[in-house]
Amino acid sequence: MKMSPLSQYVSTPSDNESQASDHRSLHQTWLVSVRSLDEVQLAMTAQVGIIDLKEPDAGALSPTRPEVWKAVARQWEQTQRLTDCQPDSELPPLSAALGEFDQAMSLASALPSEFSFAKAGPSGCDDKTRLQQSWSSLRERLHEEVELVAVAYADWKEANSLRPDVIFQLAADCGFQRCLIDTYTKTGCSTLGYLKSHGLRRLQLIARESGMWWALAGSIKADEVQLLNKQSIHPDCYAVRGVVCQGDRKSDLCPIRLEAWKDFLCQQRVLRSED
C-alpha cells in the first residue's frame, strides 16, 4: 500500500502548542510510541511533540524492525525538505527504542541519522560501572546526530537494575541531557504506583539541579497527571501509548483519544500557568 507523504499531516501549531525549534530545549511536551508508518501519520495529525518508534507487543522498550526505522526516516527526510519552505511548520523529532542493552548494541548502528533520540533499557545492570560502560558502548554505535537518552525503571527490582534515583544522578554526572522513567513489567501498575509522589519528586529534584530534561512514562493516566500537577511535579514530557490506543497498549492508536489527550495536556498547562 502506498503511504501518504507526512507533509499531508503537518499543520501550523497554535501559540499554546508550538514546539521549540531546538529539540535540546523542548518545553513541556508529549511523546507517543508508535509501531508503524501508519501510526506515525496519526501522531503527526495530532501534532504529537515527539514520535517514538517502539513495538508494544514485545516489552517495555522493544524496537520496531530496522526496515520500519528506514521507511519512517525516508518519509521524514522528504517531508523535512518541504517544511523547510514553510517557516511556521515543523516536524516533531523522532525517537527509537532499541531494546535492553544486549539487543540495543546489535541494532544501534542501524538507526538512521534522521532520528534525534535513542534509548535502551537498563535491565540486568545493577552496577554503576557496568551501566556507564553500557552507555559508552552504545553511544559509540549510534550516529553522532542521535542523542542517547538514559532510562530508569520504576519497578527496578523486577528489572534487576539500579534504583531510578541512582540512575538519574549517574546520568546527570555523566553529562546526559535527558532521562526517562518507565516501567519494565507492563502489568498495569503505573510509574506513580511504584514510586509514589515522593519518588517522582526526588527524580524531578535531581533533574532540575543538573539541568537535565526528564520524561515520565509507564501507564500514565489523566487523573495521575492532575494529581502530579497539584503536587508541583512537572515532567518535561509525558510519554504515552495505552491511554491513546483503541484498547490496551498492544492495540492500534485511536485518533479520537490522541486528540483528547492533546486537549487534556493543553488544559493542564493552562491550569498550571494560572497557579
Structural features:
40% helix; alpha/beta; TIM Barrel
Describe this structure in words.
With 275 residues, the chain is α/β, with parallel strands linked by helices. The protein has one domain: Alpha-Beta Barrel (TIM Barrel), CATH 3.20.20. The chain is 40% helix and 15% strand. It has 9 helices and 8 strands. Strands 1-2-3-4-5-6-7-8 form an 8-stranded parallel β-barrel, surrounded by 5 helices. α6 runs parallel beside α7 and α8 runs parallel beside α9. The longest helix has 20 residues, at 191-210. The radius of gyration is 17 Å and the shape is globular. It starts with 28 loop residues before the first strand and ends with a helix. Mean pLDDT is 88; it is low at 1-25.
